[in-house]
Protein 1
Amino acid sequence: MMESIQARTKLANGVEMPFFGLGVYQADEGKEVVDAVKVALKAGYRSIDTASFYKNEEGVGQAIRESNVPREELFVTTKVWNDEQGYDETLAAFERSRKRLGLDVIDLYLIHWPMKGKYLDTWRALETLYKEEKVRAIGVSNFNVHHLEAVMEISNINPMVDQVEFHPFLTQAPLREFCRQHEIQVEAWRPLTKGVIFTHPVVQSLAQSYGKTPAQIVLRWNLQHRVVTIPKSVRAERIRENADIFDFQLCEEDMGKLDALNENRRLGQDPDSFSR
Ligand SMILES: NC(=O)C1=CN([C@@H]2O[C@H](COP(=O)(O)OP(=O)(O)OC[C@H]3O[C@@H](n4cnc5c(N)ncnc54)[C@H](OP(=O)(O)O)[C@@H]3O)[C@@H](O)[C@H]2O)C=CC1
Ligand SMILES: O=C1CO[C@H](CO)[C@@H](O)[C@@H]1O
């Protein structure tokens, strides 16, 4: 049973990554993101998920510096965006992200989407960054099984993480099984469906029976599947609410009720629209 906000999963290379973190997509650069990250760190969050695309890496870095949390406790993820891909372009994009964040080492660097004709060269750049110890772990995002296989075919280093859309409407069972077999940690994006799922009767009824909010029910379901989760909020009360999920456990039957909501329904883009 996962009992702490600071519970960590061991990645294939032994690096420990928190199961729980803060996503900052659409948190505005400036006060909004700085305040959100500070509130989260104060509430015990130790992992922050940003991206070059989110245009708030500077604010994330500022909040980290202004908090009193030792750097070694923190786990910072950022991603190379689609128009930055390719070998040399990715090395340059990484330096820009690193500078904006104000960090020497990034904990996890991800390929944001599998861009056609680019993602294998991009992966080679991530390998270089890893070998140069500029990143503690490397991974991908929005990779389906065939994208992962393509990377694994050309590389000695497997992606350590695959960050994908994951929630009860899209449970990604075959992809999760593939990742389990190859020691790739699955991480959920849009875990709260941006609230779409909150009014679902199954979620409502579980929330009532556990005395928890719909958001907490869905996030706990992520963790019990051993999927890393990074809900986004910029509101202090919700940042704390989303983290208050370590004092209860969904029973197997209730996990099954949430699993049964799967409709293979994507709220975001299909990775195969980037490359098949
Ligand atoms: N790799 C990728 O391609 C992608 C990665 N991501 C990552 O995943 C993170 C999470 O996904 P995201 O798309 O942000 O969506 P989420 O599913 O985390 O939902 C975030 C939304 O839900 C609201 N919210 C948060 N907590 C609560 C709550 N307890 N009750 C009610 N509403 C709530 C937030 O509003 P408010 O802020 O006002 O509280 C926000 O509008 C992103 O921030 C990003 O880091 C996301 C999409 C794609
Ligand atoms: O990280 C991201 C945030 O959400 C966007 C819209 O769904 C995605 O395209 C992007 O990958």
Protein 2
Amino acid sequence: MSDNRLIVALDFPDMDKVQRLVAELGDAVGHYKVGMELFYAVGGEAVRCLRAAGKEVFLDLKLHDIPNTVSQSAKVLSMMGATMINVHASGGLAMMKGAATAAVETAATSGRPRPKLVAVTVLTSMDEAEWSRLNCALPIRTQAVRLAEMAKEAGLDGVVASPQEAAAIREACGPEFLIVTPGVRPAGSAVNDQSRVATPAGALRAGASHLVVGRPITAAPDPRAAALAILREMEAV
Ligand SMILES: O=c1ccn([C@@H]2O[C@H](COP(=O)(O)O)[C@@H](O)[C@H]2O)c(=O)[nH]1
């Protein structure tokens, strides 16, 4: 059983642990996320190893800077072989447009496939109390939908959002738009530092196109069994 809508987050600082886990999960998992911790530790090697093993790779570096810096960085990341990369939507429309143009142009000039480009809306760890402390007056959901609409306008393929906002984003942005949801927790598992969470089935029913799951699989006593249980739950939706 395998389903590339499930993306397993490899939040470790070394390749030995990554290789052990990928071997253990075997053909059950075909899609992995390389985030800051792993990338800062080993760089592009993580992407290369996973691609060589036939896996899809979401390179989750959440670019957020002035438009020129982000578009130049997006060019570099587009050459690494990842199948998905991302920026922060709160960097603004010009920044997102710059990243989208960079990804398209790099694919055209290099002949390499263009990675999907998605934008982080509001981090899934944020709750309404913390959100208000930032002086943000609108509810998180309203802001997440607004940022998703901007990402669509900028030509991005989709967003990273909480499953709790997936239904509203799906309604606003249509059936083709990617909605990649971290903050996924099987019933009864630890929430950790996440706030706006849903179960795998709940996230899919709300309209998520992909589920990002880290610790519920990687910290489980039997990671393969944990992944297979999530895949069974997804299959039943
Ligand atoms: O809003 C966001 C954006 C990214 N993430 C990343 O997803 C995983 C979630 O890991 P868990 O262990 O399942 O909590 C992690 O790599 C985050 O950096 C997110 O959680 N929320």
